[in-house]
C-alpha cells in the first residue's frame, strides 16, 4: 500500500505546474572519501516547489563518479504535508542504480518531523519514520520496482539543531540516517553540518556542508563527505510574493 501511494509523487510533481509556487533549484557538488571503497564525486540537483498552500514537492537527481567513470544514477520524488506549523509528514520514493554492478534499489519512506523554535535565532527538529527497501541484484531497473531478490525494512530518524543569527546566515547540525536522496539504516548514521549564506533575502543562497558517516558495531567502514552548493530561486521575488 505504501509504495503505491508514494508512486503518486512523480505524477503530482510533473503535472502541477499551474499550481507551483516558490520553485527553487538546489545544486550540490560533493566529494566522498571512503575507508574501504574508491573515493567518488557526486553531483546532485534538487527541484522543489509549493504545490498547494500546505503541500510541498521535491524531485532530485544524483550522479556519482569514481575515477571519472559514471557508476551511480539516483533519483527521488517526495511530498511533504505541513499539517501544523510545527509538524509535517513526508512521503518519499527513491531509486538507486549502480551502473557498474547492474544493481538497483527502490526505497519507500514515510516519516514525521517536529520543528520547535524556542528562540528567534535557534530551533530544534526531530524526525522519525519507517522505510522499505527493495533490492534487485541481477539487473538494472531504472524505474522503481517492488519485486526483487529480497527486501528489508528499518526505522529512520534524525535529530538536529538550527541556528540563524541573522536573516542572511544559517547553520544546521544534525545526527541522522536520512539525507537528500539516500536512506541509511540505524546502525549507519552520519553527523552533518551545513552552513548557508544568502546575500539578499529571496535571492541566491550559497551553502557549504560536511558529514561523517560510520557503521556502528561492525568494524571500520567510515565515509567523510564535504561539498558546496547553490540554491537558485526560479521565480522573481515580486511574483512569488504576489502568489502568496
Topology summary:
Blueprint: H1 2-14, E1 21-34, E2 40-52, E3 55-66, E4 69-84, E5 87-98, E6 103-119, E7 122-136, E8 150-163, E9 169-176, E10 190-197, E11 205-213, E12 223-233, H2 237-243
Antiparallel strand pairs: 1-2, 1-12, 2-3, 3-4, 4-5, 5-6, 6-7, 7-8, 8-9, 9-10, 10-11, 11-12
What report would you give on this structure?
The structure is a single chain. With 244 residues, the protein is mainly beta. The chain has a single domain (2-243), classed as Porin (Beta Barrel), CATH 2.40.160.40. 8% of the residues lie in helices and 61% in strands. It contains 2 helices and 12 strands; from the N terminus they run αββββββββββββα. The protein has helices at 2-14, 237-243, and strands at 21-34, 40-52, 55-66, 69-84, 87-98, 103-119, 122-136, 150-163, 169-176, 190-197, 205-213, 223-233. The protein has a 12-stranded antiparallel beta barrel. Strand 10 (190-197) and strand 11 form a beta hairpin. It is globular, with a radius of gyration of 18 Å. The chain starts with a helix and ends with a helix. Residues 1-19 and 238-244 have low confidence and may be disordered.
Amino acid at each position: 500500500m505504501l509504495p503505491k501511494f508514494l508512486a503518486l509523487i512523480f505524477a503530482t510533481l510533473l503535472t502541477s505546474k499551474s499550481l507551483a509556487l516558490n520553485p527553487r533549484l538546489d545544486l550540490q557538488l560533493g566529494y566522498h572519501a571512503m575507508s574501504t571503497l574508491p573515493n567518488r564525486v557526486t553531483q546532485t540537483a534538487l527541484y522543489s516547489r509549493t504545490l498547494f498552500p500546505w503541500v510541498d514537492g521535491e524531485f532530485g537527481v544524483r550522479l556519482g563518479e569514481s575515477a571519472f567513470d559514471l557508476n551511480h544514477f539516483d533519483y527521488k520524488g517526495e511530498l511533504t504535508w505541513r499539517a501544523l506549523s510545527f509538524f509535517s509528514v513526508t512521503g518519499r520514493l527513491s531509486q538507486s542504480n549502480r551502473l557498474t554492478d547492474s544493481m538497483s534499489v527502490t526505497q519507500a519512506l514515510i516519516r514525521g518531523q517536529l520543528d520547535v523554535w524556542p528562540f528567534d535565532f535557534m530551533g530544534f527538529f526531530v524526525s522519525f519514520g519507517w522505510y522499505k527497501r527493495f533490492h534487485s541484484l541481477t539487473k538494472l531497473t531504472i524505474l522503481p520496482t517492488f519485486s526483487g531478490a529480497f527486501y528489508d525494512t528499518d526505522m529512520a530518524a534524525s535529530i538536529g539543531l538550527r541556528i540563524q543569527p541573522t536573516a542572511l546566515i544559517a547553520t544546521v547540525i544534525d545526527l541522522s540516517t536520512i539525507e537528500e536522496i539516500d536512506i541509511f539504516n540505524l546502525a549507519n548514521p552520519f553527523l552533518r553540518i551545513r552552513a548557508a549564506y544568502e546575500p539578499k533575502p529571496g535571492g541566491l543562497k550559497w551553502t557549504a556542508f560536511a558529514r561523517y558517516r560510520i557503521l556502528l558495531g561492525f568494524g571500520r567502514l567510515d565515509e567523510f563527505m564535504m561539498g558546496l552548493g547553490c540554491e537558485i530561486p526560479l521565480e522573481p521575488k515580486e511574483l512569488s510574493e504576489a502568489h502568496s
